[in-house]
Amino acid sequence: MDHFDLRDGVMHVEDVALPEIAAAVGTPVYVYSTATMERHVRVFREALAALPQPPLVAFAVKANPNAAVLATLARAGLGADVVSAGELLRAIHAGVSPDRIVFSGVGKTADEMTLALRHGIFQFNLESEPEAEMLSEVATGLGMVAPVAFRINPDVDAGTHAKISTGKSENKFGVAYDRAHAAYTLARNLPGLKVRGVAVHIGSQLTDLGPLEAAFGKIGTLIDSLRRAGHAIEVADLGGGLGVPYDPALPVPPLPAAYGEMVARITAGWNTRLVFEPGRLIVANAGVLLTRVIRVKQGVNEPFVVVDAAMNDLMRPSLYDAWHDIRAVQPHGDRFVANVVGPVCESGDTFAMHRHMDRAAPDDLLAFMTAGAYGATMAGTYNSRPLTPEVMVSGNKWSVVRARQPIEALIAADNLPPWLATETA
């Protein structure tokens, strides 16, 4: 459920009409609903209420690192799953307590490890033996002890897009399942490390609980064997990845309640504190990308609806062939089949082909739905297009939470080398 609906023929986000935001801020612009995020947090927590220990729910910051989004989720009680020093600092700045932060990612640097240790994070999820050795060296150099888990690659096919699958043996993530005991033995013998957990994450946008259940089952078996080998396993990080409905024509992904029931059943008897890393599930349906139609160009078959949003604003369709529902902000009741494209000079700047949608005309506003996750955070400045602004709505109030970047700022960021600066002076 989200809080984007039609009132008197105009799409609103909570109690604010989208045309009001477009008129004040311009387009394209991302618009987020506070009420939707808060509801998704509540539903996810309720789904896990039967667990014997309160879990740590750590929002995957990569899904949407906007400070207002992170502050909203921090106030709702979420921690943070981070994969860089930048995400760590963003989370702390937004009010997330460091002892509720998990640091994941395959390429942590010594500087990032130092920063995280000094802030006192909850746990490092190690993804290789060399990473454990580096963290040991950093921690001992600081006279500190790092709490760690190894991320285990269970070789389970998540059944999702190849570019967001992370749990197969050929993926770059984690330690291979059959090397787990050797990795834990190494870590136990390294100074400066406190081994206390196991982590797993097999992919994003999962629409079937079967792969998750298979992966968690393997992790449960591993926890038993690690304990028999003398390792104190107190934490099990089960990652995120539960999908959200993008295409209304497809079956609805499993609801959080079904996920929670499966987790409680599979983890019964583990005697661990569970950690979860939801991202898309919390913020995807809480955001839309609002865009304006520039013109409608007749193609050989269907017309091209050219909008002012582009692939640099929302990369998912170009990168993953991702599907986003495209709705008219003020629908007239007519429908047609069209191709929706942006102004960037790439054939890949295409949002939808042969799409049955509300009929659009020049100057109409369209909303790309379910755009709150992996939207603004993946945006770039290709074709010298400034970064997209972001707006947060709460009830009848709204605020710009990231302003549109002026083109002058892009130009000013470049520096001419001395020999050119002299010639152009």
From TrEMBL:
Residues 37-284 form the Orn/DAP/Arg decarboxylase 2 N-terminal domain. Substrate binds at R280, R316, Y320, E346, Y374. Its EC number is 4.1.1.20. GO terms for biological process: lysine biosynthetic process via diaminopimelate. It comes from the Bacteria. The lineage of its organism: Bacteria, Pseudomonadati, Pseudomonadota, Alphaproteobacteria, Sphingomonadales. This is Diaminopimelate decarboxylase. Residues 30-372 form the Orn/DAP/Arg decarboxylase 2 C-terminal domain. It is an enzyme of class 4 (lyase).
